[in-house]
């Protein structure tokens, strides 16, 4: 059996959402043991949460700073920490652990400002530590397949990238009704200046970037906040110009009734097109120009090694969000072991979303906001 | 039996596409007889086409001017003419018939320039004639249902209009290979300055306008011509601002492999959302916020009178493009009879696409081109 | 222009359903003129219906016998008659016209008993007349494509045929509430002994027979009438054994809420499978064993000549039930012209559903009822 | 934190499929620790597999008998054993552990004969032990929702149950090519007399039984083995008569190209219908008679407490096969804790599939085989 990764967690206590997802993702392939945590800024909740998760009280910390220092000093200290706090805490927590030489697995977006993101990049470099950001949608096997098909030229030269991530839960003023998730996500001091943009728009951007392999060079954007008094955008309209003369559109919204987590991407080149939906992620439609469309299925016929590497069950047995997330975690476990065996962090990233991916996301947020503030002026970026 | 409408046709001879569609649409409900035509600018082809269509040789004309004059003079002259030529001929043909007092049913786009369109509007007014433009997608029963639901407030205040019309046939340089349809559609002297924009982008715009009931107030656009040497756009990216603070996006393309006639609209208000696809037009998804989505079906349960008026077969027996087109033609037949009985053309239009719809389309084309030429600057319009 | 077929109609007056469908189907390609009729057994309704349809009063008949004789004697008498009455009238009407040497286009099922059907076969043979039965679902282009793929071996040896035709409108006792369609369809004296079985089960059977090219050799059936007092079956369960060791199941029901006209067929051989749904008939899923499934589309890439022959609009513009029905009518028009030019009726049938198809349907009904009456005993047939 | 269940496993070593699934299912909610195993009948493979799974060598056993005895004697012995062997080993292994008073979680089918199954039932009763059989499809939240809707009368009286489970992997003679999964599944000495019937037909039966709440009273069946030399059925056709005058059909096949794990159920009552597909399990279509169909989604609006209890992620984030399986395991963990606290096994089963479910499956297999051997004669059962 491979050595298990000793994992700590910051955030993710009672009432949180994404922390539980990270924990399940880390368990699915049995590569981690969760042994330490600063699960909440509320000490009582932190302790109670730790107990419920089977974390020994001696390793349940009141603050992340304390945890970073204490874990560093232990012989059996954690190998890595998962950061699953609201956005504004990503940076300070990551900094604290990196400075102790502890590997970091951070939720997205990377930080709440590009400045912080670039500073974090420096800290990562100086630390020599492994750092990953959980752009989890890249962990779906058929997303890997799509990327592979673009790379191997099955679509020809890419011309168009149409991506959207649409929800409906903020159609009403959810943040006024005691919904904690809504509260911090619509509070710019905790979520950063982008609302919908930072929360799910970055996922859409990252997915487009990952599959197409193309940087976005310019954006023209129109951000809206439809609900009176809402402090952040809840709808994102972006036109994009990408490397190699490609064009694209990105739509992200949290006010479109009937959409749950409707993340969808379509990519077209001069030889073919691809279409993938997160809500039914076990299908990938491939349309070679001039031929009937083909439905590729997870674990089905005609897939690449990379797509086939990431499955646990036969074709037709749906794998979903948690398994895609687990693929990221499991690849990180392999990477961490390689680092412990002496490999450089850079050399083990392969397709794991890295700090560059995180910074690209922050540049995207920044540029979209700038463009929207300047009434849609095309703003250049390198992301 | 209602008196049949005596119909003439300009364009639509051998090798044409849309002429045959108009003829089938006029026949489905048996309300027209096609008795005269100037079917081609090539006299031999015109004659041969007329013979094949059962038009008597005495009423097969070499030129539309000749036809307009001759038909006017006959006691049994045509009641209306269908114009199914390439775009640049819409204006002169319409003018010729209107000046003879003959009703006009014109294909879209209205003309090849806004100037012509406005001039045509004057001519229509002066003539006192009936004038319709065949924005046929508005004839689908579930499109009528969608419009009805917006009007009766089932979606609440409209916030978002996302529309797309996507094809793939111009992924390669089809116009260089002898494809007549591709040739004129990519030739700005015959199609007007908009390529994909005028050909199918206007349909998308018109559909959004029709269902939402909202004018577009501003557009920011990015037009592309992906194929080297192609003289018109083949991809259209537009951000829209609509009446009442609504926002939208329009994507139209003819270079997206795997898309045939993928016209799709999604509309969202503060109380619910709607989704409709032309390629499977017998379904309309309605998502009241906070409840499960419902699938409305053509001729199925819970539809408005207007949607139910336009059906010929029971639910589950698919009706398609030709029946939607026929709905427009049949409503026009009713309207023409009312005019003949003394009603004013304005009073009989109801939901028939009129010259205002045509002019709106031209304004949209114009503004999108202006915006794109000014690198996406927001351009105001009243359409 | 081809000579138009002079058409008469028996049945199809006010309040009827299928008559209007036949009329539209005959008009779509402009190959017929409807000039005579005995549209209702109620003389007033017959006359009024004729007037509404533009049939001259001199050719609106009170009885079909009178019509057959009178039309025979006219120089400009009808070329063919469409029979669109309730089932029990199919036989006597067909007989009357065939005996006058007039071609017959009959709705299905052929008759209300196998005895009648076999007698009709004799009459047809003796008459030397053209005779077709409108198993209209065989007119869909992608149904032709499916048949072609079976014939050319793309599925290999056929092993399985799974077919179903499911509706929901008789979930309640519709026939007690004044619904004329429900009344005669649940009245064995008018519909024949099969209820759902004769009404739509025969369509499912015919479709399976048409595409697979395989006769059904044995059936084991369980018929049910779920509504108390209903005189005919409203649910049909059949296991089938077909030629060449193939097996199959047929399910037909009129009491399955949520199903409108859900006719669906799946066929599997040792090399591949096919799936087609009537409610979205512009798609055909082809699954070659060991490869990704492909979605063939009407008028799209990779279709046979026969499938391509039957289209009017480009791919992505949905054609539906009426166009499929029109394909049958248009092929019949061609066939009738060939007959008039001296060809034998047998030589012109090609893929037009003929009396053999009708008799097969009757044998199927008969055998299914026998099997069900004998508690599911396997009953042999040659259909 | 709840006490973790100490789990052992028999079967599931290298090269096996379902063992890994059970392990992931047990890990997802972190309620088990796998600490003992007899993972293979090949001692070397057993040891190697144990090491890979982190099972201490002292608790990796060569035989299940040895394991049952040894674990019984340990103070820290396992609380339960998961049996994931080929079918013929289910009985002896279960017997061995039950006789030591150890709880059993067995894969399906229960045994390879009804005699064994009934004997096992006695053993379970005598042992007083907890016993579950992993009919995992009942763990999907929307399957629970469907059951709930049937129970609360939303469908009215059930009339029809149409279920199918279709695959394609045995379209060719896979068992001759070294595929271990195919080898034992087509070998009646290891899989039992039912091939496809026992492997997946029982899942379809169980799902129908679970959701409808109705026993099957009679079956008429036609089993086929399409491949020459194949020793078990690879296609299953069954007509069913259920409690309360309901009827149904079950189709199961492993030779239908294009089908991966196409388990699908449709249930109809006099007030509405339901439809659910395993391959996209996050949707449930509900069609109240006379109203538009509604799409219920996992974690979406309008679900029962039972369906909502079984989710980990928000609506629109697909959960799949492994999460459904995990729901069974997690409920079993709760049940085992209750037993350890003194509750009787019977009192804690709730919706966990129990030995009765397993015996029903065996009765179904038996009766279907009997019916098929008697050429489709209706065979009574009480299952």
From TrEMBL, chains A, B, C, D:
<dbReference type="Pfam" id="PF22725">
    <property type="entry name" value="GFO_IDH_MocA_C3"/>
</dbReference>
<dbReference type="GO" id="GO:0000166">
    <property type="term" value="F:nucleotide binding"/>
</dbReference>
<dbReference type="InterPro" id="IPR051317">
    <property type="entry name" value="Gfo/Idh/MocA_oxidoreduct"/>
</dbReference>
<dbReference type="InterPro" id="IPR036291">
    <property type="entry name" value="NAD(P)-bd_dom_sf"/>
</dbReference>
<protein>
    <submittedName>
        <fullName>Putative dehydrogenase</fullName>
    </submittedName>
</protein>
<dbReference type="Pfam" id="PF01408">
    <property type="entry name" value="GFO_IDH_MocA"/>
</dbReference>
<feature type="domain" description="Gfo/Idh/MocA-like oxidoreductase N-terminal">
    <location>
        <begin position="5"/>
        <end position="135"/>
    </location>
</feature>
<feature type="domain" description="GFO/IDH/MocA-like oxidoreductase">
    <location>
        <begin position="143"/>
        <end position="275"/>
    </location>
</feature>
<dbReference type="InterPro" id="IPR055170">
    <property type="entry name" value="GFO_IDH_MocA-like_dom"/>
</dbReference>
<dbReference type="InterPro" id="IPR000683">
    <property type="entry name" value="Gfo/Idh/MocA-like_OxRdtase_N"/>
</dbReference>
């Amino acid at each position: 059996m491979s050595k298990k990764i000793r994992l700590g967690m910051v955030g993710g206590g009672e009432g949180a959402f994404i922390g539980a997802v990270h924990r399940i993702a880390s368990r699915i392939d049995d590569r981690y043991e969760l042994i330490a945590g600063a699960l909440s800024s509320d000490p009582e909740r932190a302790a109670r949460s730790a107990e419920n998760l089977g974390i020994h009280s001696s390793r349940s910390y009141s603050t992340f700073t304390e945890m970073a220092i204490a874990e560093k000093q232990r012989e059996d200290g954690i190998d890595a920490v998962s950061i699953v706090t609201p956005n504004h805490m990503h940076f300070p927590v990551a900094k604290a652990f990196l400075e102790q030489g502890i590997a970091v697995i951070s939720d997205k977006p990377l930080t709440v400002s590009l400045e912080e993101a670039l500073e974090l990049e420096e800290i990562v470099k100086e630390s020599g530590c492994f750092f990953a950001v959980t752009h989890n949608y890249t962990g779906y096997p058929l997303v890997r397949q799509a990327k592979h098909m673009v790379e191997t030229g099955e679509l020809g030269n890419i011309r168009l990238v149409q991506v959207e991530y649409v929800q409906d839960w903020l159609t009403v003023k959810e943040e006024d009704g005691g919904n904690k998730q809504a509260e911090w996500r619509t509070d710019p001091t905790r979520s950063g200046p982008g609302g919908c943009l930072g929360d799910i728009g970055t996922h859409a951007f990252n997915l487009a970037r990952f599959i197409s392999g193309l940087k976005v060079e310019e954006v023209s954007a129109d951000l809206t906040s439809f609900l009176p008094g809402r402090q952040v955008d809840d709808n994102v309209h972006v036109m994009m110009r990408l490397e190699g003369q490609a064009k694209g559109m990105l739509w992200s919204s949290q006010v479109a009734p009937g959409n749950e987590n409707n993340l969808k991407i379509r990519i077209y080149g001069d030889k073919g097109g691809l279409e993938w939906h997160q809500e039914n992620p076990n299908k990938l439609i491939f349309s070679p120009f001039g031929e009937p469309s083909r439905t590729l299925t997870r674990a089905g016929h005609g897939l690449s090694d990379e797509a086939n590497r990431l499955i646990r069950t036969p074709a037709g047995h749906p794998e979903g969000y948690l398994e895609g997330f687990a693929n990221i975690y499991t690849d990180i476990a392999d990477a961490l072991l390689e680092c412990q065996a002496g490999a450089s962090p850079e050399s083990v990233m392969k397709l794991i979303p890295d700090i560059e991916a995180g910074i690209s996301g922050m540049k995207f947020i920044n540029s979209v906001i700038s463009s929207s503030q300047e009434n849609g002026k095309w703003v250049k970026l390198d992301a």
